[in-house]
Amino acid sequence: MAHYDPLETQDVAVREAQLSEALPIQIAHAQQHSPAFARILQGIDANTITSRAALARLPVVHKSELMELQKEGRPFGGFAALAISDLARIFQSSPGPVYQPEGRRSDYWRFARALFAAGFREGDLIHNAFSYHFTPAGFMVEAGARALGCAVFPAGSEQPELQVEAIADLKPQGYTGTPTFLRTILDKAAEMEADISSLTKALVSRAILSPSRRREFKERGIEVMQCYATDDLGLIAFETSALEGLVVDEGLLVEIVHPGTGEPLAEGKVGELVVTTFNPEYPLIRFATGDLSAILPGPSPCGCTNTRIKGWLGRVDQAVQVKGMFVHTSQVAMVLKRHPEILKGRLVVDREDHNDVMTLHCEVADPSATLAQAITASIRELCKLRGEVVFTAPGTLPNDGKMIDDIRQYA
Fold first, then answer.
1. Which of 108, 155, 106, 145 is nearest to 125 (CA)?
2. Fold designation for 319-406
3. Residue 102 pairs with which residues in a beta bridge?
4. CA atoms within 13 A on the CB side of 99
5. pLDDT tens sequence across 258-278
6. In what order do the strands lie in the sheet with 271-277?
7. Rounded CA gap, 109 and 115, in Å?
8. CA 146, CA 24: separation in Å to the nearest integer?
9. Under DSSP, is residue 410 helix (H, G, I), strand (E, B) or coil?
10. pTM for the whole thing?
11. Residue 207: is its pLDDT beyond 50?
12. Span 239-244, mean pLDDT?
């Protein structure tokens, strides 16, 4: 497989050494130029943050914090490290709204690497069906395409009939957008009896690409790869021809952490995906995406040596309403942390006789009535609600990253 640049196949130890050098520089930069991180990282000696273990001692930043700071009238929540006069664009995303800055560097969102892995090359014409309205998705692809030497037709995500006509006329080599809209275009082309067979490759995101949908596209002559990106961070990880997980982008450091605590999890364990960027304009240190994933062991068979993740595995349950009160994952995490005997825990919320019932399922090696009473007291103190405790054998709870499972059913 061809690679975008030598960074993708460099020795793992070399990459880690480079990260160790870059981390203290980026953290010091964030402290000095980002008002929000000057507050969050107050008292932290940036020179001591030279490893993943040291980085894990820093607090996790949630999007909700950014939203609250923006509501107070602070531009970009105080996280941006440049003035508006230095920006290329400003975008808005939901929930929030949250505003994101775009700097003027080439391929600011780092999308060229994902496009290359999907088979796009210099001279290709890309039919870009990501939205150009409010959100940065369309511009993310366009910046990457420009860096790769590709031309772009800015189609957006509406009017499939007109899009089919444009594809039939311009004969682009590939498509970028959601897999759902790609199928809409293909179905519309069949209905219109239009020839859009020039489309032979695609890079999709923002919706699940199932194995059956991938096969369907291949049967219709299109090889489809997927990537994982967010409005705040740009490209996070991308699929390669190996089709074994997603390779993390070279411009980021990714952790999978225990939801609610920020403590790193071992390979294979499902948890919240937390990202540290090395973007000087908009530094985000340990930024929690709210998405669940897991790290795959070993390098990709395609030759890329960076960390691989399983991809998007769902959303972190941030909160659930029980008897009119919200219970957050952070509260459940505090209960588990207070009792080190609990190897793993999961709060299940159900209904019995029209009443909400909370039960904390705990993996414990040596259960006892005394421990159950202590945990029950902690639930009441930290969650402000009554909850039952059920002990289970180690290794029996699902490895899906959930700390709260709401199984209530309503008529």
1. 145
2. GMP Synthetase; Chain A, domain 3 (3.30.300)
3. 89
4. 16
5. 887 889 999 999 899 999 999
6. 61-62, 287-293, 271-277, 252-257
7. 12
8. 31
9. coil
10. 0.83
11. yes
12. 96
Pairing of strands 404-406, 174-177: unpaired
- b/e burial code for range 315-343 (CB count within 10 A of at least 16 → b): ebbbebebeeeebbbbbbbbbbbeeebbe
Nearest to 112 by CA among 103, 104, 122: 122
Give yes or no for a contact between 100 and 90, defined as CB atoms under 8 angstroms apart.
yes
Determine the distance from the C-alpha atom of residue 20 to the mean position of all C-alpha atoms in its chain, rounded to a whole number.
23
Instruction: Give the residue from 291, 43, 61 showing the smallest Cα distance to 69.
Output: 61
Which residues share a beta bridge with 364? 342
CA distance 28 to 8: 27
CA-based Rg of the chain, rounded to a whole angstrom? 23
Per-residue confidence (pLDDT) for residue 411, from 0 to 100? 38
Contact 346, 379 (CB under 8 A): no
Write down the residue that tokens 């067979």 correspond to.
Answer: 197
- Tokens 């199984």 identify what position? 407
From CA 39, how far away is CA 169, in angstroms rounded?
54
Six-digit token string for 47: 């020179």
Residue in the structure block whose two tokens are 């207070």: 338
* Amino acid found at 283: P
Cβ-based neighbour number of residue 59 at 10 Å: 12
CA distance 5 to 401: 34
In this predicted model, what pLDDT tens digit does every residue of 353-400 receive, in sequence order?
A: 767 899 999 999 999 999 999 999 999 999 988 999 999 999 999 988
Write the DSSP symbol of residue 256: E
What's the one-letter identity of residue 209? L
Sheet holding 295-296, edge to edge: 151-154, 125-128, 174-177, 201-204, 223-230, 234-239, 246-248, 308-309, 295-296
Cα separation values, 284 from 90, 226, 232, 411, Å: 17, 24, 9, 43
Cα 280 from Cα 60, distance rounded (Å) = 19
Reading phi first (left if > 0) and then psi (alpha if -120 to 50, else beta), residue 241 is in alpha
Question: Are residues 170 and 163 in contact, defined by beta-carbon separation less than 8 angstroms?
Answer: no
